[in-house]
# Entry
Amino acid sequence: PPLSCGMQAHWRCRMLFIVLCVPALPRAGAAQTPRGTSARAALEARHLADFADAGITESSGLAASRRHPGILWTIEDSGAEPVLHATDTTGADLGTWRVTGAANLDWEALAIGDCPAGSCLFIGDIGDNRATRAQVTIYRIAEPDPEAPSRRTRPATRLAVTYPGGPRDAEAMVVLPGGDLLIVSKSRNSAPHLYRVPSGAWRAPTPARASDLGPLPIPSGSLADLVTDAALSPDGRRVAIRTYASIYFFRLDGGYRLSADAAVPACGIFGIEPQGEGLAWLDATHLVTSSEDNFGLRGGLGLVRCEGS
# Structure
């Protein structure tokens, strides 16, 4: 679609620079790695399906259901309605749910984790391209039943979060076993930082202050290196973090800190999608990605298998 004005326009134009200046393969082709990176091309990386739901044009987060095997949840980013979309690996339109008691300022992350209701979806309204938001918001809702007649979720629980040192732009979030949240910043001129929000923050009456756990060993300085999502592996032991061009693998160390997984090299996925934003583990070795519409191409789902994953 044509580049639009508004909050996303600036970064859409900069992403267009990548496409014009760095040759990319068609969506259905094999992945490649941009020059200057140490990532190895994925063992398997291909376009999986377009979204049948024409309302999904800016898929900015992705999560694989725990309660309903085969279901994938996705969200739209800034300017969209506060809704959840259900799909599967064929891209089928499996319904849309309005999130009760939530607003979509800049939804950029979606994760699944434990909660008092059993299994919950955590929606990260954490996008902040201009780094001006005094606080960001995370919503927690019981995972909907795709077979239920209601197309509204239960009321969302809201958590306000601030960062040490001021606002940060972020698009990646995971929920750890035990309920702690990890957020990865989308740093443009320095290494992305890892932030922790403890599970007890949901019970506090005041906004939670995230703690800075330090930088992650992910390259920075290129638009292709911007972090756009993260996902916790099914066994709860590893975290995959994606950029526009690559996927990086980390192991949980000491409960909530991440250490680079030396046994799994960075995985190049450049060229399989127009603007990759989402990431989820499909099983122990395969990941599924999601993309926004951009540059005249429809967004959709991609399938990735990386060396050692």
User: Anything to note?
Assistant: The longest helix spans residues 9-21. Confidence is low (pLDDT under 50) at residues 1-30.
